[in-house]
Amino acid sequence: MSATDIPIGETACIAALNMEAPEKRRLMDMGFCPGAEIQRVLDAPLGGTIAFRIRGTVIALRDEQTDKIEVTPCKN
Amino acid sequence: MQELKQASKACDACGSCQKGDKIAPLRRADKADYVIALAGNPNTGKSTVFNALTGMRQHVGNWPGKTVVREEGAFRFREKVFRLVDLPGTYSLLSNSMDEEVARDFVLFGRPDCTVVVVDATALERNLALVLQILEITENVVIALNLMDEVERRGIRIDDRALARDLGVPVVAMSARNKKGLTELAATVDDVVHGLVALKPRRIESIDPSIDQVVRSLVKEIEKEYPGVDNARWIALRLLEGDPGVEAEIRSGTLGKAVHGGLSLAGGQ
Q1: How far is B187 from chain A (nearest CA, A)?
Q2: How many domains does chain B have?
Q3: Are residue B97 and residue B139 in the same domain, yes or no?
């Protein structure tokens, strides 16, 4: 499943980033690395943007990006 | 603040840095003995550290992207003049915008004598990515663990000694807005530029031999094209990664233009 499918308030772990270098590096710079825990905390009122809590901060991403972030339930 | 007070007491008792060390803000200096880069993620207090050391009143604002060009100032410490370069905040040395490019170019090609990485101690994990990237390219690094007042207020505990040991470079706990830790920071920078500190930056050790071979041959090509270029290995890795910005700048010879007009000048062609 992708990060877009995480229910609001729920947490999942990043399994893979299915995208190419510049975009991938940018997300990794912001802390979206495989293994990182992300929690969907907020949706934009009109959709299109989702805010995630990651490593102690909140970052909003567009659907086009979250679609390409593969997530799995966190082990622990 | 309790811990900072205790630390300050311990500092008084220690005597390893001579008491009486004073930072004399100079604002501008025509001739500097050392150039110090001030890098860090956005909104970690770089400009507050900069103003505190140089006596300048560069605008400090609580929003990211405030510093878009590099600001320079200076201070005198232990009879030496240090030029301090305040860089725009960046999450990474892989630039994504003009201001990040300014920071990247200065760290990579500006040949600072020491790079101070200001980190937000309340969000240490996020900040360490940039620290590790900088440690890959230079060993003269001091970590300024800023916002320690906030750390204490939130009840977070940070083992700064373990951090320094693991990173292999000095870590100075400080709170720039309360003027705590500034003398310690200046003293540590002074020690680093004088080679008085053993530096063993943490780096990724294992790189696949097949990749390493390609990197080496690419480094040779880059150095042939641009003799004397700094950080050819870093450039090679970006090219292999498919970084379109670096590739374009290598083709046009404009990599590092924010510092010295591009590679051809740096390379002395």
Answers
A1: 31
A2: 2
A3: yes
